[in-house]
Specification:
395 residues; 8-stranded mixed β-sheet; 6-stranded mixed β-sheet; 14 strands; 38% helix; globular
Length: 395
């Protein structure tokens, strides 16, 4: 069975075609920096690799470009659209309705659209991918795998906000959690690597969107993102944690309306608001060239992560491992070093040489005397989505 996996982020689309149940990757790729004039598309098969740079204005344009490559007469991996048996979609927000992998119906699409108000940078793109896949692969089963599903184990004390109870009971306002597919995948890999029956792990997913999850014995017990994927860590264009009084001040004293504030906090803040760059690679390069705003932004980013490590170590009463994953977490030795420096109290001791090394698999970047393992684990949300999609379908 061939499963196409589509993982649409706020500014990227990851994709893979996998043969299941063998988990053989037939092709994979990523389209990055959507919405810019220097969007980068990487497409790999066992026999070839293509990298293209150019203007990709919208996710819809990106989806069509990817599908055209899959069907390309020379570089493609399928001859007919019927060769794709199922399409597994990452969907960020499933609210309380979806705590498991789900076959996509008209009602499911309607709810994904409804939840777009809670995940405005993601759910619309997720839904766009579903609609395009339905159009281009009409014979394939369409399956939704929800980021929020991993967080159904959150205890009430962690997922409930200190606001009137009716909002929780009647309006379902609570912590939902995001990047769940990634956190689930890497935490399971970490547990397997550590060989522990009982474990306390902090998973740090750093990309254009960023989040952290406290994972005890394989189940999430706390998470940095909440009702929507906007709070917690500093992200590419999202502010992360902010005093809500600032919102009232912007309205009452500076004359902004709610739509303007939503745009500012979701699309003009974070690293972009601090530096003018949303991509951390650009921030790091400018910092190396002496840009003071970028230097400070990196310090702020690392400082926020450190605070969450401290909070989650306290919440779990211990810590066995810290896991860095996703595009930034896996590739930015600079940010990892800033996070892990002066963390001896938590038993973390970074090996600077190992931190600079690269590998395709799990690797330790801690010293031999470090009480806490510091791991870099490449996430594979696409494989996790394919596995969950395959489980749902009759063979």
């Amino acid at each position: 069975m061939n499963i196409l996996v589509i993982n649409a982020g706020s500014s990227s689309i990851k994709f893979q075609v996998l043969q299941m149940p063998s988990e053989q990757v037939i092709c994979n790729g990523i389209l990055e920096r959507i919405g810019s004039i220097d969007a980068v598309l990487t497409y790999k098969t066992p026999s070839s690799e293509i990298t293209e740079t150019g203007t990709i204005t919208t996710h819809k344009d990106g989806f069509h470009k990817i599908v055209n490559l899959l069907l390309h007469k020379d570089k493609g991996v399928i001859e007919r659209i019927e060769d794709i048996n199922a399409v597994g979609h990452r969907v960020v927000h499933g609210g309380k309705l979806f705590s498991n992998t789900t076959i996509i119906t008209a009602e499911v699409k309607s709810k994904i659209k409804e939840f777009s108000s809670l995940a405005p940078l993601h759910n619309p793109n997720n839904l766009e991918g579903i609609l395009i896949a339905e159009e281009l692969f009409p014979s394939a089963k369409q399956i939704a795998v929800f980021d929020t599903a991993f967080y159904k184990s959150l205890p009430e004390k962690a997922k409930k906000y200190a606001i009137p109870n009716k909002f929780y009971k009647e309006d379902n306002i609570q912590v939902y959690g995001f990047h769940g597919t990634s956190h689930k995948y890497v935490s399971e890999k970490a547990i397997e690597y550590l060989g522990l029956k009982e474990s306390k792990i902090i998973s740090i997913h750093l990309g254009n969107g960023c989040s952290m999850t406290a994972v005890r014995n394989g189940k999430s017990v706390d998470h940095s993102l909440g009702f929507a994927p906007s709070n917690g860590l500093i992200m590419g264009s999202r502010s992360g944690d902010i005093d809500h009084a600032i919102i009232f001040y912007l309205i009452n004293h500076l004359g902004y309306d709610l739509q303007e504030i939503q745009r500012i906090l979701n699309k003009e803040s974070g690293m972009l608001g601090l530096t003018g760059y949303a991509d951390l690679r650009d921030v790091q390069q400018a910092a190396e060239n002496g840009n003071k705003d970028c230097i400070l932004a990196l310090e702020m980013n690392a400082y926020r992560i450190k605070k969450y490590i401290g909070a989650y170590a306290a919440a779990m009463n211990g810590l066995d491992a810290v896991v860095f994953t996703a595009g930034i977490g896996e590739n930015s030795s600079v940010l990892r070093k800033k996070v892990c420096t002066e963390m001896q109290y938590f038993g973390m001791d970074l090996d600077n040489v190992k931190n600079e090394q690269r590998s395709n698999g799990i690797r330790e970047i801690n010293t031999a005397v470090s009480k806490v393992k510091i791991l870099v684990i490449p996430t594979n949300e696409e494989l996790e989505i394919a596995k969950q999609t395959f489980k749902l379908l009759p063979i």
